[in-house]
Amino acid sequence: MNKRLFSIFFIFVFFLLTQTIALADTYMKQVKSSDAYTVMGQTIPEKTETTETWIGEKASRVNLPDGTSTLLVFAEQKAYALKHADRTYAEMPMSMDQMMDEVEEDIDTEDEEDMAASRAMRDMAGGMMSQIKISVRDTGEKGKTGKWNARKYEMITEMGSMGKSVDEVWATEELKVDMKSYWKARSIMQAQQPGFDKIMKEMEKIKGVIVKTISRATAMGTEIKTTEELVDFSSKPAPADTFKIPSDYKKVSFVGRY
Questions:
Q1: Can you give the pTM of this predicted structure?
Q2: Domain boundaries, given as residue ranges, for the chain
Q3: Among 21, 48, 133, 181, which residue has the least CB neighbours within 10 Å?
């Protein structure tokens, strides 16, 4: 059970730090490539994945390469995970406390070991989330990235005992978007996290739409390099029901299923 709790926690933190930034009334396609690396004696092969994002005035949807989707509903301030293979969906926890509440509902409350592990995980999670710090620096460097003229920023994310990530971020102001919706969509998944205001203040130093990110993260003494690039960007009507949960999908618990 302890291993399961740790897995859930790290998946949640990873999700918060890697969510695609959303844009209003926009279609985006991004390609993410990860170099091969070895950690704890296990070699993880290189991988390339494609993610599609649809944005509307009231919601956004990210279609992930594993056959799942993430739906953000702005007015409800809620996020849903959709698993298309078994036609299910789950409401996603919007904070670490909500995540741990779901974990505790899913375990045997009479098992002292499980409850002790849950309490320890909650304390550790709160501490680690409060340690996350982001700093952004405008390098002043300009260049061509894909189809767009862009400006280079350096973003450093410190995650306490989890290590840190140094990102090379390229952004362009050539793409016309609703910046209010841009930050609204991003903030839904992080607004309840410790230090949110400071994080957003730093992120807003990046002017325009991010078109390429080269990330170098260090974990357990191993460098993990990933490159994410915007390859398609357009304004067009989303397919019907893109921002709705299908009526025949069954609601399940997020913990243990996603």
A1: 0.72
A2: 2-251
A3: 48
